[in-house]
Amino acid sequence: MKTLQPPGWAPAKGYANGIAARGTQIFVGGQIGWSAQQQFETDDFIAQTAQTLRNIVAVLEEAQAGPQHMVRMTWYITDRVEYNARLKELGAVYREVMGRHFPAMSCVQVAALMEARAKVEIEVTAVLPD
Q1: Considering only CA atoms, which of 39, 71, 44, 78 is closest in space to residue 55?
Q2: pLDDT, tens only, 74-93
Q3: Can you spell out the DSSP letters for 59-105?
Q4: Which of 24, 32, 103, 124 is the least crowded, having the fewest Cβ atoms under 10 Å away?
């Protein structure tokens, strides 16, 4: 994998502007903050995000991959004000679950997610090198 950082651009913080990779592509469908039994244990944004990230890791592990293989994440959140207000906590939980691997990321506020209690949904693309 190679991080793509155009010359003269300020460094991205907490994400990459782009990543080039070669290998087996892994597509993780939108994960939300519920347990493996599809039960919510909390309505807290940070706790749901932590569970969402753990769910992503579990799916990646099924392909013998891990967070270090992620090339792209798309976050769908229901409250950008809360997201921005809790960035420090969010960063801590991200690093706890995913380490210090920051793929290309997008984050979009949506009116609602399909599961009414969900506050975050994240899709991931990963590449496992050949």
Answers
A1: 39
A2: 999 999 999 999 999 999 99
A3: HHHHTT--GGGEEEEEEEES-HHHHHHTHHHHHHHHHHHHTT---EE
A4: 24
